[in-house]
Amino acid sequence: MKKILRTPVDAASLDRLLGLESSKIGFYSEVKQKIQELETANLGLRAKSSELQAVFDSISDGVAIYDSRGYVQHRNHICPRMFPVDTLVGRPCRQLFHPEQTHSADCPVERALQGESVQISFTSTVPGMETRYYDATVTPIADLNGKNRALLFLRDVSDRRTQELQLMQAEKMSGIGVLAAGVAHEINNPLTSVAGYAEALLRRFRDDPGLVQDPRLDGFQKYLDVIMRETYRCKGIIDSLLSFSRKSDGSVGRVDLNHVLQEVLELVRHKSRYEQIEIKEELQENLPPVLSDGAGLRQVLMNLLLNAHQAIQGAGTVEIATFNEAEMGVIRIKDSGCGIPPEQLAQIWNPFFTTKTVGQGLGLGLAISYNIIQRQGGEIQVESQQGEGATFTVRLPLCQN
User: Fold this and answer.
1) CA dist., res. 300 & res. 263, Å (int)
2) For the chain, what is the largest distance between any 2 Cα atoms, rounded to a whole number of angstroms?
3) Distance (Å, rounded) from C-alpha 233 to C-alpha 267?
4) What pLDDT digit, counting tens, does each position of 61-81 carry?
5) DSSP state of 232
6) How many CA atoms lie within 13 A of 310 on its CB side?
7) DSSP state of 118
8) Which ranges in 246-363 belong to alpha helices (H)?
9) Rounded to whole angstroms, how far apart are CA atoms 284 and 278?
10) H-helix or E-strand spanning residue 393
11) Are residues 258 and 377 in the same domain?
12) Which of 16, 112, 172, 212 is such that its CA lies 20 to 30 A from the CA of 276?
């Protein structure tokens, strides 16, 4: 009988005998394939995440996401420009919408968390800075766990709102202008009667020497002269106001620059006296007429003179000169005001560009003036240094005989 010898078998030999080695290879291959699939999916997710982040940051409005408790979860790069602190991650919605109250039934974020889409407008005022106007749209975002988050869109509408307020003011001033023209017509009639009766009384003094010698009437002629002079001055102001309010039909003709300028000055002299602004005139005599629309030119000169007055803080001077140069009639208006910064010189002709507060200016005066002068074949220019005043020059073609 043969003796059976026992041969020791190591683990590797046993694996080969049982086929475990090939099983491991198959298992490892599957694991490797799964890892590769996961890596590919992860790359896709990262690409999608980058794509969504790029879309998120490319939105020109402020965008913020609030979690189900009303705290900021994400925000784009626009939010810090509008509200750098109030929209920090982790800040509650009350800090932006109702800082004085812990909860508010009118809070758009809290309403969105209840499933409601909300659109509101609100203002933000920072001490030392101008009031800003915002539109906010908040919509709910449903999570897989059944809770809502809130998506906030913020848009700065300050420029649009300011223009709306300016247009409202313009409509109001237009209505006042119509009323003023009507009042001027009504005042003109009694003034005519006052002037007529004063002239009649003066004629009686001239025709009846006995009245002059009557001691009871001593000084009456002087009083009547004052009444007539002031009455005709009032009539001159009213006539200038009516000329200024007269609608332009756009037609051009022969216009006396000096005469139109004096009409406009008659309307602004009271402003000069009240604000201690001295008006210096250097008007060329026998100035040839220009080819222009008289009503439009009155509007241009009124805009320029009012701007000159508003640029002066306290006492100052406005220098006005007329002359002809190179077949053009020229009006030059120079003020001693604050001047115009260099970066704003190119923008002053743009509609609605203004550095004044609402109610003081609409930002339309210079834009309208520029268009009026251009339509009449002329040109308008400005020269200014900040702190040294501004000089506006209007050139219009002379009438050819």
Assistant:
1) 13
2) 184
3) 11
4) 899 999 999 999 988 888 888
5) H
6) 15
7) E
8) 257-274, 294-311
9) 19
10) strand 390-397
11) yes
12) 172
In the block, residue with structure tokens 């834009």: 367
178 against 63, higher pLDDT:
63
> What phi, psi does 269 have (nearest 5°)?
-60, -35
3-class state of residue 228 by DSSP: helix
Round to whole Å and give the CA distance between 300 and 257: 12
146's tokens: 């059944």
Which residue range forms the structural domain that includes residue 192?
158-246
Token digits of residue 2: 């043969």
In a domain, 49, yes or no: no
Token pair 């002031």 is found at 230
Query: Please, what is the average pLDDT of the chain?
Result: 80
* Matching residue, tokens 């005519």: 192
Using 50, 70 and 90 to split pLDDT, how confident is the model at 363?
Answer: low
Instruction: Evaluate whether residue 7 is within a structural domain.
Output: no
Q: What is the mean pLDDT of residues 21-38?
A: 67
Q: Of 273, 271, 287, 198, which is closest to residue 235 (Cα–Cα)?
A: 198
Quote the CA–CA distance of 124 and 133 in Å, as a whole number. 7
Amino acid 4 reads I
C-alpha neighbours within 13 Å on the C-beta side of residue 264: 22
Q: What is the mean pLDDT of residues 185-205?
A: 81
Q: Is 261 exposed, middle or buried (0-12, 13-18, 19+ CB in 10 A)?
A: buried
Transcribe 130-142 into DSSP letters.
Answer: --EEEEEEEEEEE
Residue 29 included in any domain: no
Tokens of 297: 């030119």
Residue 50 C-beta-side C-alpha neighbours within 13 Å: 5
Residue 54: predicted pLDDT: 74
- Could you tell me if 166 and 96 lie in one domain? no
Same domain for 163 and 152, yes or no, is no
Q: Among residues 382, 338, 370, which one has the least CA distance to residue 356?
A: 338
364 and 260 part of one domain: yes
315's tokens: 């006492």
pLDDT digits (tens, 9 = 90+) for 219-250: 787 888 888 888 877 877 777 666 666 655 56
19: in domain: no
SS3 content of the chain, % helix, strand, coil (to 5): 50, 20, 30
Distance, in Å, from the CA atom of 134 to the CA atom of 317, rounded to the nearest integer, reads 41
Instruction: Give the pLDDT confidence score for residue 66 in this predicted structure.
Output: 93
Domain count, the chain: 3
